[in-house]
Amino acid sequence: MAVKVVKRHTPTFWEKIYIPQILCGLKITSIHFFRNLFLHTAHLFGLMKDRSAAATIQYPEEQRPLMSRYRSRHRLTQRDDGTPRCVGCMLCETVCPAKCITIVPDEHPDPHVEKYPIRFDIDLGVCVYCGYCVEVCPEDAIRMDTGILDLAAYSREAMQLDIHELMNPELRKPIGDCDLDFPHTCEIHDGEMKGDWESVGVSTHEH
Ligand code: SF4
Ligand code: SF4
């Protein structure tokens, strides 16, 4: 078998001392800096609007528009009467590769609907955002389209979304130490889902 000999590149004196490469890098950075400074200043005076300058997104106050298929925090969709579309079939819990969904189904008061979840938890500290739960659902009952990305919390308990938070994406338990007892369950009373958050006096905040 023929052997091909590849000669190693021997660095020159100027390559060994790095100074030309450092100056070359500084030149590129300076060109971009002064170009953006010039364009942003021109834009302030209404000039050269057709030429865009590099923009910095001031996250979290400012957020990039998300792609429509972006997978963000989960939510449970609702029927017209405000009860969950979920029929407690357990497909999502079964398919979830991270085993982070816990569902407890119960008989639905409406005889036309077989079951509904009285408990539905997703542990965001374990979820890998694969979206399988959304894909597998036969009822379009779970989606990942809330656009909510800031999911940080200071305790493992606060990372668990329960049925209250899944039914109402505006709702979020405090991100600090969470002293709620898990699991929470909800039941339908007078056509409304009611649970025990209110009874423990939890103050909630929006993202
Ligand atoms: S996105 Fe994936 S890992 Fe997260 S709850 Fe759904 S199935 Fe489980
Ligand atoms: S969310 Fe969908 S897949 Fe999961 S239990 Fe409910 S109906 Fe079944």
Protein topology:
Elements: H1 13-17, H2 19-44, E1 75-76, H3 91-95, E2 101-107, E3 115-123, H4 132-136, E4 142-143, E5 160-161, H5 163-167, E6 186-189, E7 192-195
Antiparallel strand pairs: 1-4, 2-3, 3-5, 6-7
The structure holds iron/sulfur cluster (2 copies).
One iron/sulfur cluster binds near residues 97, 100, 129 and 133.
Features of this protein?
207 residues; 3-stranded antiparallel sheet; two-stranded antiparallel ribbon; 7 strands; disordered C terminus; binds iron/sulfur cluster
Structure description:
- It is a single chain.
- By secondary structure, the protein is α+β, with helices and mostly antiparallel strands.
- It is 22% helix and 14% strand.
- The chain has five helices and seven strands.
- The chain has helices at residues 13-17, 19-44, 91-95, 132-136, 163-167, and strands at residues 75-76, 101-107, 115-123, 142-143, 160-161, 186-189, 192-195.
- A three-stranded antiparallel beta sheet has the order 2-3-5. A two-stranded antiparallel sheet has the order 1-4.
- A hairpin with a 2-residue loop joins strand 6 and strand 7 (192-195).
- The protein is elongated, with a radius of gyration of 27 Å.
- It starts with 12 loop residues before the first helix and ends in a 12-residue tail after the last strand.
